[in-house]
Amino acid sequence: MRSSGSRRGGDDMTTLNPAQWARSSRWLSLAMLVFLHAAFWLGVEHMWARPLLLAHLGLFLIWQPVWRSEARLSWGNSLFILGVSLAALTWLNWWILAFWVGGLFALVGARAFSFYARWQRIYHLLVMAYLLAVLLLHITPHLFDLPAFDEVTNNLMTVALPLMLVVMALIPVEKEKPDAVQAIDFFYVLLLFTLLTVLVLGTLAFMTLNQAGYLDALLRTLFLIAVALFVLGALWHADFGPFGLQTSFSRYVLSIGTPLEVWLKQLAVEAQLDSSPREFIESATAHMIEMPWMSGMTWVSAEGHGTLGSASPHRVDLVDEDLQVTLFTRQAVAPTVLLHMRLLVQVLGYFYQAKRREQRLREITRQQAIYETGARMTHDLKNMLQSLFALASIAQSEPAKAQPILQQQLPVLSQRIESLLDKLKSPGLETDAREIELMAWWEELCQRYQHRGFEWQLAAKSRSAINIPAAMFDCAADNLIENALNKRLREPGLKIVVSLDAESGALTVSDNGSAIPAGYAEKLLRTVVPSEDGLGVGLYQAARWAGQHDFMMRLVENEPGKVSFSLARH
Question: Under CATH, which number does the domain 432-569 receive?
Fold first, then answer.
């Protein structure tokens, strides 16, 4: 699947090279920390503090991982950011700085473990350590008005933290793979920010309630947080069945009952109800447009095209094989929502392609049925023409004997011709299911081929009452007998034996000619095998037809002087 991403109207988008991005991100973040450190070192009330913080904020907006680098902010968002920034700088105090540094710590911490390169991780961990030290050892003492920490904070801001910035600048810059640059996880951001808030407020609570010193209160709060995290970790990995934290949290994250789940249920229902691909995609997109963040969509495929809802400046173009979908959203699409949309279109494309394959399969099955019916009718017609040719030959060579033979055979041929004409008039009508008594069919077969020089054998203690599908038995017997007659033309004097077991209903056609070659014998009755007398589809079609009636044709014997085919029940 390919995606053109989210864009506004005709805005140009540029993408940085991964190596350039890694270098620019490194130096932007370092410069951002330098300006922040300079503002803290000079003091909040210094005349240069606010300009330095404004420069720090500008660098943050360039570095920040919240919006993608190619995205353009609207005028409304730009004015909102500018207004909030000016308000914060106008009423600047230690609480605002604590909130800001805590947010920076959470943003960096959420991305620290998304990098696979070792030096990248080390750099981000040092940034986290720097921000944590600034928050706990510089901002919080000023926030709680602790003059005893002035010397510690001065040494920290003058010596320790600048050295840490120098170390961060000397860390090697590694080229990060493009797939390693991941979108920020706001759950991690919220978790880290909450932990910092609990740490600062817990320290304040211990200092106020227990009259403890700052370091003592800080260590107590850290210890309680560590114990709480240890207990939560133990409960998370403990096996408490459906009441375990991991199971409960996973069930919450899956968000049962969201629009996605409702749409998937509707998609499954439509996949069962709609038969054609076009009807399916029309109904599926009609439900898809009801997603809360979508304003409209268009789709184009081999089945046609459609438009729903209304267009908007925010669009996403997605392609899944021959299905092209354009989604219009009410607002700019974030990376997580874009991934969500890709999943929706992938699921839609999967069901759509399944519907197309189902339609092609139905067409192939219909064509296969037409082919098999036509092949059977062709062979029936060929066998009747061969019978007519035999009768015509007898009438020409022995006119005196032809009259009684014609009186016997013409009614049978007339009946078969009438049946064939009925099939041609109504191909969909099931006329092959007519059943006949086995002995009656045997007598008709003997009468039809009585002048062809066969040996007829019947094994029966009494007249059988077995019923058989007449059309299928006619097709199988005609093909076996005609193949034996064609073999007699190549091998004069060939003896052909047609036998019937009236008790089991098994028909056997044998001859004493040459054996069928091994390569042909393995494929015979299983697939189409070209023969000297035709395309080799007669026996194959007869065998398939027999299988549909719970009978089986097989080559019983294949030796020189003994070649036998049988038709019997499974």
Answer: 3.30.565.10
